[in-house]
UniProtKB/TrEMBL annotation:
It is found in: Membrane. It comes from the Bacteria. Residues 289-354 are annotated as: Disordered. Keywords: Hydrolase, Membrane, Protease, Transmembrane, Transmembrane helix. It is a single-pass membrane protein. This is Regulator of protease activity HflC (Stomatin/prohibitin superfamily). The keyword Transmembrane applies. One of its GO terms (cellular component) is side of membrane. PANTHER family: STOMATIN-LIKE PROTEIN 2, MITOCHONDRIAL (PTHR43327). Residues 21-179 form the Band domain. GO terms for biological process: proteolysis. The keyword Protease applies. Residues 332-342 have a biased composition (Basic and acidic residues).
Amino acid sequence: MIDPAVPLAIIAVLLVALALASIRIVPQARAYNIERFGRYTRTLGPGLNFIIPGVDRVNTKFDLREQVFTSRPQPVITEDNLVVNIDTVLYYQVTDAKDAAYEIANYIQAIDQLTVTTLRNVIGSMDLERTLTSREEINTRLRGVLDETTGKWGIRVNRVEIKAIDPPPTIKEAMEKQMRADRDKRAAILHAEGERQSRILRAEGARQQAILEAQGEQQAAILRADGEAQAIERVFQAVHANNADAKLLAYKYLETLPDLAKGEGNTFWVIPGEFTEAIKNVSHAFAGDAAAGTPSTEKEDSDGPAQIAAPDPHRSSAVQAAVDAAEAAQRAVDDARSDVRRAGTPPGQRSSGE
């Protein structure tokens, strides 16, 4: 006889197995599509869910987090008939598990092919230079087309990035040469601009230096002229204050005459007419001073000019030196006048006159 507890145990085990089969725990950011007898009924969200065992089954499971898809480098022809290899990266997310399962058979392959065709259409309308410098524009246009098409598949394309654009080797070499030429050009322009600025600054400095030197010379000349004017004014005032007579002025005139003969190129000296008068004034002045102390020994000759008396030992040394200087000057003047007369007289007359 069968123990009645055995069927109960079997029934209990079956009930437990049936209960476990009816429970579905869905993780966070996941979605399960449930089919009942092969027909879609609902999508299970995260958490604890119950299904009918043997009737309902999980058809597809989707990850609702953002995912990354990297496509292989694809050859693309530009507007100027150059082939470039472009590698793209897509960031997409499943927003509707039902559409992703039933609207498209393989959404990954569909996104890859759609990216390639859209990329060729976009790059085909650009030349190589614009392709290399318009990545943001390419990304924006790709995203617009992919987002519009994949929306009905329950896919949202969040971002499209161009990872690499590889032109042909010959084009790379030409571009490198062009970049080197551009850098050399900019370097030459900067060097020329620096030389220009340097010359301008040097010229400006020389100009400022010349101006400052001229101003300094002007101020120095003005100060020297003012000093000379003040000196002359003081001398003039001193002469008038001390009431200098003609004798003193004649003596000072004689003192300045030797300065006229100074210099290496003074080979010809013109004796002014006032020289004789100055000598006479000095001679008379010192002769008068000497006559006041000793008896006069001068004698007047009726047929010739007055003769200066012989030196007197009783005269002072200063007076005697002045008299000797005056006599020597008188003799030099007489000799100079005789030479001038002989030089201006014709030879025939000179012999007869002599």
